[in-house]
Every structure is written in C-alpha cells, then in structure tokens.
Amino acid sequence: MIVSTLGIIQNVLLTMHENRPLQNHSIFYGGKATAGTDPLVVKLQHLRRRLRKEASTTTTASIDATELVVPFVDIVHAEQCSGIIKASALSALHHFIVTGMITQRSTRISPAINAAAYAAINCRFEVSDSGSDEVVLHAVLSLVTTLLDSKGVGAMLTDEVVWGISQAAFSLAFTHHRSLLLRQQSERALKNIMHHVFSRLGDMLAVNSEANNMDRDGKHGEPSTSMGKEDRGIPPSPPPTAASTTTTASTYRPHGLPVAVKLFNFAMQLVDGKSCALFIARRVLFSVFLPPYSN
C-alpha cells in the first residue's frame, strides 16, 4: 500500500514538472532540495523519502494522517498551481481514502480529513478550457463523495464542512454551461449528502439528548449541539485548513443536528420556490425520504 502511495506522490511531482517551470528539475527524480526549490515540491519529496525509509516497517494505522494529507492540501490551496496540478493532488487524496491508506484508526484522522474536504470545496483555479476545468471539478466531487461514504470517516466531518460540501454540489448541479455528466454527478453527490446526514438522524438525536441532559445536570461545560438563532445551526469551529491540522482531534466536533436542520430548511426553501431548482430538490428529497415502491 505504501508502494502505491509512492507512485501517487511521483505522479503529482511529474504533473507539477510538466505544468510549472521550476528551478531544480532533478528533485522530481529523487534529487536533493536546494535553497531555490519550490516549498510545495520540498514537502512532497520529504514525504516520499520518509515513506521509502519506513516502507518495510510501517503499517497503515501507524502513519500520521496529517503528514500524508498536508502536502497535497497545500497544493490545492496554492494560488500559483494550475487546475490540472490541483486535480492531481485531489486525486491523490481520493486514493488515500479508497485504498485504506487513511482510515478511522489513523492517527489524527479527524483534522486530516476535514482539511482535505475543506481544501476540496474551496479549490480555486484559473479558468482555461471547459474540459480541463471539469476534470478538476470531477476530482472535487469524487473526493468529497468518497469521504462521506467512507465507513467511520464520513461521520468525523464537521457541520461546517458538510454544509460546504452540500453548497458546492448544489451550485455545480445548477451551472448550465457545465456538461450534463458533471451536473448529474453533482446531483448524485447532493443525494449522497442527504442520505448520509439523515440516515444518522437517530444517532444525532440521541447524542443531542444526552448532551442536553448533561448540561442540565451541570456535568458538561460545553453547549449542546442544538441549533441557536445566532449561528443559524452551525456551531463555531476553526476552519480545517492545513495549518490547523496541528490541533487536537477534539477540536473538530463531528457533524450532527445543526447541519441536518440547516439542510432540511434549505431543501424546503427550494421546494417552496418557483425556480428550476424545484425539480432537482424534489428528486433529491424523494430519494431520501420516500421508500421505494413495492410490488
């Protein structure tokens, strides 16, 4: 598994080599960094060197998830990187999830996956041709959908991140100049988000009830996850950027009732409206709340 990760790192380095003029090209093939080397490349090279050294002794559960994620998250956030480079970094993050390189047992998994999701939904790149742009958007949707669907990992995403994923998928679903394939993929992502959140509604209610009981008994110092008027359902939390992955995992409260209430209100507003969003909103809601017809 580590060998495949080394291949992913090499692929990102080669993509950067082909799409960005850098001062030292030997670093892509294992050369040492110099003072003028791009910091993004230095981080990838350091990760590659460390994984090569520990390939024979390290298990996937013992690898710090933030060490794997941060170099690629920094690429997605970097303004100087083109869309194709960012798509390569997003694909690398997707690879870590689907291959089990990052699991719920990984060290500091919560800040790592929230940083990855936050980078994806805030990915910005210079517009080129429509085909290249949709490659990046496809990588964004693939990553966030896989994070949500991953067992044990999706539940660790914060309210802020889940809400951001839903808004990104919704905006792409209604961007008419995009291809039909991308719009349908966005709609499927929106359905997956609704399924993921509302299928856990019973657990959310139980957690919220327990928190309220502890608050009444004076045994818990933190406020409950019930929605307030000022925050409109999303409790304040630090944005899960690469820099914040050094914080403890307890900083990232898993999503719960606040984002469920906000998603439901958002869907109801669409249904009550008269725009073209009504049709997709109905399809999404029917797929979540109505059982399949039986013969």
Task: Record the SSE blueprint.
Elements: H1 2-19, H2 39-54, H3 65-77, H4 83-98, H5 109-121, H6 130-149, H7 159-173, H8 180-198, H9 201-217, H10 257-272, H11 277-289
Can you walk me through this structure?
This protein is mainly α. The protein folds into two domains: 2-148, no CATH class; 159-236 and 256-295, no CATH class. Helices cover 60% and strands 0% of the residues. It has helices at residues 2-19, 39-54, 65-77, 83-98, 109-121, 130-149, 159-173, 180-198, 201-217, 257-272, 277-289. The chain is globular, with a radius of gyration of 21 Å.
Number of domains: 2
Order of helices and strands: HHHHHHHHHHH
Classify the beta-strand content into a percent band: under 5%
- Identify low-pLDDT runs: 22-28, 220-250, 291-295
Distance, first to last CA = 45 Å
Compute the number of strand runs.
Answer: 0
Counting DSSP H or I runs of 4 or more residues, the number of helices is: 11
Tell the overall outline: globular
Radius of gyration in whole Å, from Cα? Answer: 21 Å
Overall residue-averaged pLDDT value: 77
Estimate percent helicity.
55-70%
Strand count, sense and closure of the main sheet? Answer: none
Structural class: mainly alpha
